[in-house]
Structures are given as structure tokens and as C-alpha cells.
Amino acid sequence: MADNSNLDKLLKKYDRPGPRYTSYPMVPVWKSDFGHEEYVRALENSSKKPDEPLSIYLHIPFCRQRCWFCGCNTTTLKKEGTHNSYLDIVDKELNLAADLLSKRRRVSQFHWGGGTPSCLSNENTVKAFEIFSRKFKIADNAEVSIELDPRITDEERIQLLKSLGFNRLSFGVQDFNADIQTAIGRNQDEKKTVELYRYCRDEGFQGINFDLIYGLPKQTLGLFKDTVRKTIDLGPDRIALYNFAYLPDSKPHQRLIRSEDLPSPSEKIELFLTAREMFLESGYKLIGMDHFVLPEDELAIAQSEGRLRRNFMGYTVKASEDWLGFGMSSISYVDNSFAQNLSTLDLYQKKIEEGSFAVYRGMRLSEDDIIRQYLIADLMCNFKIDITELENKFKITFNKYFGDTLEALKIFQDDGLLIEEADAYTLTDMGKIFIRNIAMAFDSYLKGNDLKVQFSRTV
Ligand code: SF4
Question: What does the alpha-carbon distance between residue 257 and residue 433 come to, in Å, rounded to a whole number?
Fold first, then answer.
């Protein structure tokens, strides 16, 4: 890690809890009075743009067992029948949405997440794909992606996914070290992960992603460097380097992790900065704060051209304006409105069986929300605030509209995080480490507001 006393000073100043900005406005400010009727209206409005593509997300809320570190919405129901009947409910939800969307059916991005979709049998994997392809037209050049648990994914499954049209795979790796795996309740044979990865490469998959996590129990700098080095040697196209959020109060299963095994805050930051430096030195390009991609990957190319986008499914070049989430706890963004489904299986199923959407909270964005959402997304994806573009797109005068933020921008400049140019603010390399803090300056919901929610720390 670069020796930098200025960095220490900045870390002390800026490392604090804050949103990750996978959405703006952030989830805790969504409202409980946004439900079925509001979502129906949003879908009806969305149907008025029949030629615009859609992004679709399918949530499979099942896992073989609960990993202790995990923050996902998932259950450990293993019965094949449960999975099968869940897909029947998703099919009903899909029919409700498709009827309202009328002719708007073209899909440019289709993502399966969880839980883990690897939990489904081959038969249910085919069934899940078919219920969607019966209703929607997946474009020939669509991004079709899936999250994999390498422990329970075999070559036969990879062949099946390939035949269905999946072209992006995301591997849950976390850390290759066996002791760390034991400390997080997820034993994952390194050899099997590597063999599966090589098999996917031989089968021609591009855009393969590894999820790694820093800040895990028993993770020392030396051990994590091993994992990073092994990852670099394998050369996945994309790496997501997530910050472990230890929230035992809101996620009781995390109490199985011994807090004394966790790295201290300063050790954790060193893990992140060291891994970051190793990936950058080996040629990976930084995307957002904590994603890395090979320079020839389409995400890197899109970023260099300022057209990278991000939604709940991650960074993408295929994002559509509207995306629809299906399944328990899934999130949709339609007609400038967020909508989230109920997060327990029984309640989600009951609502859909009654012929209603299972939306229990959401939010219709105001014009101001949309402007700030655009600015924050551009900052997180393309490392800049394009003043001219914002002024032209939203008919505002930047300095007037964001007058109460100019002082904060000046401080970021003085701290060497931001450079002011004629028509833009650009993040410095140091600023990219503190990107969430800079985004927070534009978040109107944080101003004078004690949200009483737990966010992960910004660095
Ligand atoms: S990490 Fe993946 S496999 Fe483990 S509990 Fe979470 S979603 Fe399931």
C-alpha cells in the first residue's frame, strides 16, 4: 500500500457510515404507502413505450445453508417441491406484470440472483427460464447473467446455462483461504472453484465475475494478498471487492462470527487499499469504488466513453430505463418509481395468490430526486459530475441548483479529492476512494436527517 500520511488523515476524516448508492433515494426512505395500486399505475405508464427495452431480475431466495457473513434475503428450504411451487408463484406475478405492460416485452438485460440460483435443479432452471421466455422476448444481444455458488454448480449445469443463452457468470468466491472460510461458515474447495472457472472459460464464457470480500474474520493482510494474487493469476474479467458489513443486531446469524476474529477498522482499510493497488497494478481498471475489470471488458470501454450505467444488478452497458424484479424481496424501478416485494416467502406467495402484486414499499421520485439520482449514478460510474450535461438535460443552473453543496465541493477540492474544470468536476485517484462521501454531499435525504439506519462504513 502506498505510504501516505495524507491518506491516513483523510481516512480519519471521511470513514463513517454511509449509503452504497445502489439506489437513490436509498431504500430506508422509501414509503410503506407505495403498494399494489401505485405499482400498477407505474407499469401502465411504462407500457406506453412499447419499443423501449426492459431489464429483468429474478430472485431465487434459496440456499443450501446460510453462510454466516451473508446479508442476502434467502431461506434454506431445500425441497424441490418448494422451489417448484415458488416458480409457479413467480409465473403468476409475471403474468400480472406482462398483462399491464401490453406490447412492451423486449428484454436487454436478464439477471438471476439470490440466494443462489445454483440451488435449483436442472428441471427447475429450465422451468424458470421458460416462464420468462414465454412472456418476454430476450433480445439476441441481451446480457443474460446468473450468480453461481461454485460448491454446488457442476459442468452439466454450465452446459445447461449455455444452451439457455446465459452469457455472463458471477462466481461467489469471498476468500480462497480455508481457515477464513471456516470462520464464515462457508467451506468452499479452492480446487473445485478453479476447475469450474477454467471449464467456463473453455466453454467460451466472457464477462466472468468473482465476488471477493474484505474485512472477514481471520483475514490478515498476508492471507488476503494470497487470495488477490490467485484471482489475478486466474484473470476473471470482473472482480467485485465487497466490504464485509458486520451487522449482528439486524442480521442475527452473523453472531456466529466471533467479533474478536474481525480485523480492526485500520486493518480493514489496509486490506481494501492493498487489494485495490494489486488489481490496478496488474492492469485491471477501476469501476466505481470497488469493482475492477480487464481493460478489454465492455464495462471498461463503456466507462471510458462515459456511458457506463448501474442498477441493482450491478454495473452494466445494457441497462434499460425500467427494470422489473420478480420474486420475494425483489426490487423494481418502473416509470421513475421504486417498488419492493415482501421479504418473507409466505407473505409474498399469499399476496400473489390473491391476484395482487406483493409490493410493500416504494417511492415515486420527484423531479429533484431524478436530478440527484442521475448525478450520483454518473459520479459512481464515470467518476465525474458533468455540469453541462446536467444543465442541458434538466434545464438547471448547476451553481444555483446545488448552491448549498458548493462549500462541500470546495472542501473536497482542498482535500485533493475533486478537480474543478470548466464544465465538470472530476474525481482524483484519491477521490475515488471516497466516492461515497462525495455522493453523500448531493443526497438531500441525509441533510439534517437522523435516519436511524445502519449503513456500512464508506471506506
Ligand atoms: S452467500 Fe450466497 S450461498 Fe451463502 S447464504 Fe448468502 S446467498 Fe446463500
Answer: 27
